[in-house]
Amino acid sequence: RCSGCGVCARKWPVGHLRPAADGGVAMDDSSACIHCFNCVFACPRQAIAPRGDKEAAKGFIENMLRHGNEAPLSAVYS
Question: What is the C-alpha to C-alpha distance for residues 70 and 77, in angstroms, rounded to an integer?
Fold first, then answer.
């Protein structure tokens, strides 16, 4: 479903995604995914689907927010 718009790459704070030469998007293996889900939420075509247990990931993020380990306005959640 990817149209190659690059919105996901611009929303990812660690640069793990980048526009590809073929018009799509490529993963940069030199940086690690921080599981912020910015790319998933930003994609206008819903072309990105995280792998694994989405409910467990959601619970992890909610727990971090609840205990003050991350702030919604930090670099990761801006």
Answer: 9
Phi then psi for residue 61, to 5 deg, are -65, -45
pLDDT tens, residue by residue, 31-54: 777 777 888 888 899 888 777 777
What φ, ψ does residue 4 adopt, rounded to 5°?
Answer: 80, 20
Would you state the pLDDT for residue 18?
81
Return d(Cα 75, Cα 47) in angstroms, integer. 24
- For residue 7, pLDDT over 80 is answered with yes
State the Cα–Cα distance between residues 53 and 15, nearest whole angstrom.
23
Q: Is 68 exposed, middle or buried (0-12, 13-18, 19+ CB in 10 A)?
A: exposed
Tokens for 63, please give them.
């727990």
Q: How far apart are CA 54 and CA 13, in angstroms?
A: 20
Q: Distance between terminal CA atoms of the chain? A: 25
